[in-house]
Amino acid sequence: MSARSSFRTLRDEMARRIAERRWPPGALIPGEEALAREFGAARATVNRALQELARAGLVERRRRAGTRVALHPVREARFVIPLVRQEIEGRGATYRYRLLSREEPSPPEIVRARLGLDDGVPLLRVRCLHLADNAPYQLEDRWINLDAVPGARTADFETVSPNEWLVENAPFTEAEFTFRAAAAGPEEAAVLQLRAGEPVFVGERITWLRERPITLVSMIHPPSHRMVTRL
Amino acid sequence: MSARSSFRTLRDEMARRIAERRWPPGALIPGEEALAREFGAARATVNRALQELARAGLVERRRRAGTRVALHPVREARFVIPLVRQEIEGRGATYRYRLLSREEPSPPEIVRARLGLDDGVPLLRVRCLHLADNAPYQLEDRWINLDAVPGARTADFETVSPNEWLVENAPFTEAEFTFRAAAAGPEEAAVLQLRAGEPVFVGERITWLRERPITLVSMIHPPSHRMVTRL
DNA sequence: TTGCCGATTATGTATATACAAATTGATTTG
DNA sequence: CAAATCAATTTGTATATACATAATCGGCAA
Predict the structure, then answer these.
(1) Of A172, A177, A221, the CB nearest to B229
(2) Which residue of A has its CA nearest to B197?
(3) Rounded to an integer, what distance in angstroms lies between the CA atom of residue A79 and that of residue B109?
(4) In what order do the strands lie in the sheet with A174-183?
(5) Alpha carbon distance B95, A208 (integer Å)
(6) Which residues of A touch B201 (CB under 8 A)?
(7) Which one is the CATH code of B7-69: 1.10.10.10, 3.20.20.150, 1.20.120.1200, 3.20.20.140?
(8) End-to-end CA distance of chain B
(9) Cβ separation of A177 and B19 shorter than 8 Å?
(10) Smallest Cβ distance to B78: which of A78, A180, A209?
């Protein structure tokens, strides 16, 4: 190796060996030290390359046992989850926003359960619509824990979407995403300009700030919506 | 710092500062050298911590310009994509598999376009059903490029699902995932024991081996399906 | 044979050092 | 004054070294 070896080069070379079955599934590959010698690199460099392969799910590593090619490539896909506005503007469409409703109803049992909150905790429900080129793009149905984010009570969601308001005013440390297909209810259908019962793509997100639930949001998209990622 | 500082500790501490707005969105945070001094760690350790934060989308880094807290947290979610069998068995259910059909029809234009293949390239279409505790779990509708994977022509998909056969016999280097909601067609509904028009959750995957398309698969789930990930 | 325990070994990570690459901001030049 | 150039700065990465940690394997004892 004349050129100073980069961990990317090593990573790609090893990925190639796996793809070409030179290192077949289940095989134990040489130790870091041996690879370092073979590639003419430092062990730290080999280590970094292998850690990336492990993160990508191509290999499994265990101390003392060594590194082996994953038998069943439990690969992981990464999705970027931007703000709706960015998502829409990123496609070159004009973004518009409309507040639909805002209330403090007693939340249904299922919402309290999802958030892990006791009875009696005040929740704010905000429903709003995000449009791309004036076509309905996403219906946002959100519950906000007013104990955790009291400022939401007085926030003006007419002009700033709760989405963006929360980004500025309610940081979180953990989040859970759920995606599923559902049938549009009558109200949802009306807002999204669909017929009731048509399929919708629903993304749900719950966020916490150190164990403390902040907000639960359902993001409901018309069936034309696609969530795409490349590996 | 009495204990030898770990990059995880640093990462978490810095994440905390961001969450607590000690380092507010958009702020320029101290350089690696300064942080290393503050934490009593080596710059390499600080670097590793910051790289993780950057990968998670919490900060943006540019040479010479420094590191700043992301203004809009374009966070990324990671989904593990296991084999169906593992997915099902992982839930403690018993896995069953059934081949539905296998043919070499002239593929519809849309399939050829998705794969980027010319007219005349032979494609194998395999449809099969994956069951969890004898309930339909996933309908797999797959197109295989026979030019790239000639062995598929003689493979026995009665007992081994094309899913697992391809994992063993057709490695890939790149993949594209798409998720969407759709309405069940009459056949799909029948197989999945749904009514036609009911919403289904569709995952689509295209794989390539170095630019060369291998297979296109649609994985169709009943509406009870959930895709979940935690950040 | 079974179970415990310690030696061995591969990976995990911290550190100091050195240099590369990118980008900014200032300085020089046309 | 604008454009080109250069120096300074910050992150990116490679390297050698040292030690930590997990897991396996072999041996020993019950």
Answers:
(1) A177
(2) A198
(3) 28
(4) A95-103, A123-132, A135-145, A212-221, A199-209, A174-183, B227-230
(5) 35
(6) 179-181
(7) 1.10.10.10
(8) 29
(9) no
(10) A78
Residues A115-169 pLDDT 10s: 999 888 899 999 999 999 999 999 999 999 999 999 999 998 999 999 889 988 8
Length of chain A in terms of residues written: 231
At B226 the three-state DSSP class reads coil
Lowest-confidence range among A1-5, A105-109, A181-185, B218-222? Answer: A1-5
Tell whether domain B84-221 is in CATH 3.40.1410.10.
Answer: yes
Nearest residue to A221 via CA among A184, A177, A169: A184
> Are the CB atoms for B198 and B220 separated by under 8 Å?
no
Geometric angle at alpha carbon A66, from A63 and A71, rounded to 5°: 115
CA B31, C1' D6: Å apart? 24
pTM above 0.70, yes or no: yes
Taking alpha carbons only, the member of A76, A97, A15 closest to residue B76 is A76
Contacts of B113 (CB under 8 A, 6+ apart): none
* In contact, A83 and A161? CB cutoff 8 Å: no
B47 CA to D8 C1' in angstroms comes to: 21
Q: Using one digit for the tens of pLDDT, what is the confidence trace for A177-207?
A: 999 999 999 999 999 999 999 999 999 999 9
Domain boundaries, chain B: 7-69, 84-221
Distance CA B150, CA B123 (A): 10
Running DSSP on this structure, what letter comes out for residue A185?
P
- C-alpha A185/C-alpha A202 separation (Å) is 12
Q: Taking residues A79-99, what's their average pLDDT?
A: 90
Which residues of the protein have their beta carbon within 7 Å of strand C? Answer: A 4, 31-33, 43-44, 47, 50-51, 54, 61-67; B 4-9, 40-45, 48, 62-65
